[in-house]
Amino acid sequence: MAMSESWIVTSGLCRYYQRGPQEIRAVDNVDLNIARGEFVGIVGSSGSGKSTLLNLLAGLDTPSSGKIEIGSIALSSLSRSELAGYRARRVGMIFQTFNLLAHHTALRNVEVALYFNDTPHSERRPRAVEILNRLGMGDRLDHRPASLSGGEQQRVAI
Questions:
Q1: Helix axis angle, 106-116 to 150-157, nearest 10°
Q2: What is the pLDDT of residues 9-61, one digit of tens each?
Q3: At the N or C end, where does the chain have fewer CB atoms within 10 A?
Q4: What is the reported pLDDT for 1?
């Protein structure tokens, strides 16, 4: 079977932090070559750098050194605005904490996400209702995150 084209490529990827006098090597010299359409699991113990690696690939953090290419585009070549567009259109992340806006309803949380992917204003509410209905949450549109189960919060976040 032929190998698919490379989609995510890192070379010598490092992310170091200073914590007082101590240097934390959260990601240290990581080389990845992930083909388009390939599924990859990142596993390791707590504190081993999994989240840091994902934040780097998503453009939420910048490397201390090394390179990241996604679809042959070097993330380091993108402006802040272009990185925001990359995250809005090409990256989907589900965080350990769902990062929902506590004072907004499930419906409004989905509408806010649609704002960031450039869905026209007039289409946001109908699209958000459609999405939540497809997720079996049509009866929970007006509920705030605190009154949703963990699974329901996760579906809103997705």
A1: 20
A2: 999 999 999 999 999 999 999 999 999 989 999 999 988 999 999 999 999 99
A3: N
A4: 44
Q: What is the pTM of this model?
A: 0.71
> Per the structure block, which two tokens stand in for 86?
């990359």
> Tokens standing for 39?
């599924």
Structure tokens at 29: 């010299």
**Host H or E run for residue 27:** strand 22-35
Q: What is the 3-state secondary structure (H, E, C) of 30-87?
A: EEEEEECCCCCCCCCCCCCCHHHHHHHHCCCCCCCEEEEEECCEEHHHCCHHHHHHHH
Residue type, 40: V
Q: Which two tokens stand for residue 51?
A: 């989240």
Tokens matching residue 78 = 């993108």
Amino acid, res. 30: V
Q: Which of 87, 139, 156, 141 is nearest to 116 (CA)?
A: 87
User: Mutual orientation of helices 106-116 and 121-134 as an angle, nearest 10°?
Assistant: 130
Residue 105 pLDDT more than 90? yes
